[in-house]
Amino acid sequence: MNKASGPTNYDELRGAIAQRHRTLSGRLQQIAEFVLDHPTDVALGTVAEVAQRSGVPPSAIVRFAHALGFGGFTEMQQVFRSRLVAGVAPSYKARLARMKSEEKSVLGRQPAAVLSRFVSEAQSALAALSQSVHARELDAATAILAKARDIYLVGLGGSFPVATHLAYVLRKLGRRVVLLDGTGGSIHEQSHAATRDDALVAISFRNYYTDTARLFAELVGRGVPTISITDSLLSPIAEGASVVFEIQDMPEPALRTLVAPMCLVQALAIGLDLAVD
Amino acid sequence: MNKASGPTNYDELRGAIAQRHRTLSGRLQQIAEFVLDHPTDVALGTVAEVAQRSGVPPSAIVRFAHALGFGGFTEMQQVFRSRLVAGVAPSYKARLARMKSEEKSVLGRQPAAVLSRFVSEAQSALAALSQSVHARELDAATAILAKARDIYLVGLGGSFPVATHLAYVLRKLGRRVVLLDGTGGSIHEQSHAATRDDALVAISFRNYYTDTARLFAELVGRGVPTISITDSLLSPIAEGASVVFEIQDMPEPALRTLVAPMCLVQALAIGLDLAVD
DNA sequence: CATAAAATGAAACGAATATTCTGACCGCCA
DNA sequence: TGGCGGTCAGAATATTCGTTTCATTTTATG
């Protein structure tokens, strides 16, 4: 039965698995998902190990290899191993390719060059973030959120994704969140119930939405503790805030990747969750 | 006999071999030179294979392992294998750092430590992104978006911020965008008008929303060109898509920073804008 | 509902593996 | 020359491995 031979390299194998995934039966689908998620385990493990980690009997692993056209598990494993040996010395090749694409970034209207440009820009934005944010601000913000009954979030326009992400994570962690998105009325109506026992997280970058600024001023006036995430200490949501996170060098709205504020709000939410235990 | 344990990583092993090389006896020196020249063979081969290629009997290989402080060949082989997995997986370093910080969970609970952890995780996610996304896929996706009359976007739950960000940027660039958010009815009603002259960008990660999957299948069936951003080739929005961007190693929903997909959609939008001139 | 077909999992088989053991070999010094 | 410590290669062994088999369950089909 060794006549039939399956894919010969890892990419082909992935394609073959994805293609046949629907037609495979339950157990085999389960194995397909596992091997795509843990290719290294398959490359280095034994049948018994792979079987145990994926929660199936060993015979099912062999059946899976047969279904893909291999003569057995060992034959399929060779493909996974080829991925490992190919990846062991990628540094030179990858760097060469990267430098080439970065060179072309001057000419570079090609989408690949655009991507690598944004990636490197995001990298430096993250580096700047961890340097500019201090522990004192993080601690203060965490304390405010920990005491808050309801957490109000506002971020309009280009900052809306950041607000929705923070809302999502906080809700996952069991917090009561009011996301001010303005649907079905004004954000002022939505925030009417906010008191000094609650908290507001405001996110806004140039050009600042006047709605965000007005709402911020109103809640500050009512004594609501406020955390601002913005790009300047002179922004309309900086003065009066309990804590200000300043994220500098934000590009113009259409060119933002938002990675820095996304990372920050993530850390705020998780840090809050870890702190209250 | 497991008392003696040799070096635990490849660099230590190389140092140990170089150091003891003089004191080793003839056959063992011969083996030492071979394993330093062919580490991959040692990592993936059997004792018999390594013995044959290096021109020594199998028992000599085992004695060599013993001489280095290992309990046997298998134990030494683990070190050579660790070298392989370290080279292929860019997230290896990040996971290591994560485990370390989780070990130090006492310090790791401070918000500042949480932030730096997410930052470093985001860094490696970006590195993995630029390595896994190929120019071919970017070009194909750009071509689809360029031809589209209306661009439909769907991303629910944790992926919603990505969808809103893409919608924002595309609208800034003058594209006609329909963001399927389900407000005021089902997303199926909102997408009723989509035709093969339009395009759909679907974003979904584990656990996949069934609404996203259903909508995706429906529009694919209607012949609408589709770009999928997901975390597995086996995800419900992969099969039938015109282009699939696979972003691997996405953490569990509450711990995602979304930096990789955010960066990708940004590059897609800007790349589209530059390409149509 | 009855029957056939396919899929599944536990166990057993044979092959291949890493390791240990034994006797022979070599250089060294008295 | 004759013993001696260390090294060696090859056979012996116990273990582990991949694969197959088969009874049972599940699923599809009439």
Q: What's the structural blueprint in terms of helices and strands?
A:
Two copies of one chain form a homodimer.
Chain A: H1 10-20, H2 26-37, H3 39-44, H4 47-54, H5 58-67, H6 73-87, H7 90-103, H8 111-132, H9 135-147, E1 151-154, H10 160-172, E2 177-180, H11 187-190, E3 199-203, H12 210-221, E4 226-230, E5 243-246, H13 259-275
Helix pairs in contact in A: 2-5, 4-5, 8-13, 9-13, 10-13
Chain A binds a DNA duplex (30 and 30 nucleotides) through helix 2 and helix 5.
Q: Which key terms come to mind for this protein?
A:
DNA-binding; 8% strand; 3 domains; Arc Repressor Mutant, subunit A; alpha/beta; Rossmann fold; homodimer; 277 residues; 13 helices; 5-stranded parallel sheet
What does it look like?
2 copies of one chain form a homodimer. With 277 residues, chain A is an alpha/beta fold. The first copy, chain A, has 3 domains: 10-87, Orthogonal Bundle (Arc Repressor Mutant, subunit A), CATH 1.10.10.10; 93-132, no CATH class; 133-275, Rossmann fold (3-Layer(aba) Sandwich). Chain A has 13 helices and 5 strands. Chain A has helices at residues 10-20, 26-37, 39-44, 47-54, 58-67, 73-87, 90-103, 111-132, 135-147, 160-172, 187-190, 210-221, 259-275, and strands at residues 151-154, 177-180, 199-203, 226-230, 243-246. A 5-stranded parallel beta sheet of chain A has the order 2-1-3-4-5, sandwiched between helices. The longest helix of chain A is centred in the middle third of the chain and has 22 residues, at 111-132. The interface between A and B is large, with 79 and 71 residues. Chain A binds a DNA duplex (30 and 30 nucleotides) through residues 25-28, 46-48, 56-63, 72-74.
